[in-house]
Amino acid sequence: MNSFLFADSAGPKVQRLYHQSHYVLAGLIPATLVSEKSSIPAKLSDIGLAAAIPVHSHIAMNYVVSDYIPKSAQFPVRAGVAGLTGVMFLGLLKTAILGPGIGGAIKELWSSSPSKK
Predict the structure, then answer these.
(1) What is the average per-residue pLDDT within 51-68?
(2) Rounded Cα distance, 8 and 5, in Å
(3) d(CA 27, CA 17)
(4) Most buried of 20, 61, 71, 74, CB within 10 angstroms?
(5) pLDDT at 115
(6) Cβ-count burial of 10 within 10 angstroms (0-12 exposed, 13-18 middle, 19+ buried)?
(7) Is 62 exposed, middle or buried (0-12, 13-18, 19+ CB in 10 A)?
(8) Angle at 4 (CA atoms; ends 80, 45), nearest 5 degrees
């Protein structure tokens, strides 16, 4: 639990995980965007993104907390970051499994909507 709340200072394993998440995101984002909406590669990419994005952002936000939040307020802020990471994971997982997928949701942003008459 301590390494989850204090992810920025948890040691070299967590730092390695953070740096490897860059490569995972660099591979999965294009993969989900070029895949067909309901194909197996798109679903696998979306589920991978649903796991990789919260891990990456949780560790990065803990670095921000260490740098910019006073020491006395860091624990409650870190608990809030952990809660938001959980909510983000569940939301992205729900979108990946039950919704259009993360890539599908991004594609919908750029699709032209039918003209309303």
Answers:
(1) 94
(2) 9
(3) 15
(4) 61
(5) 61
(6) middle
(7) buried
(8) 90
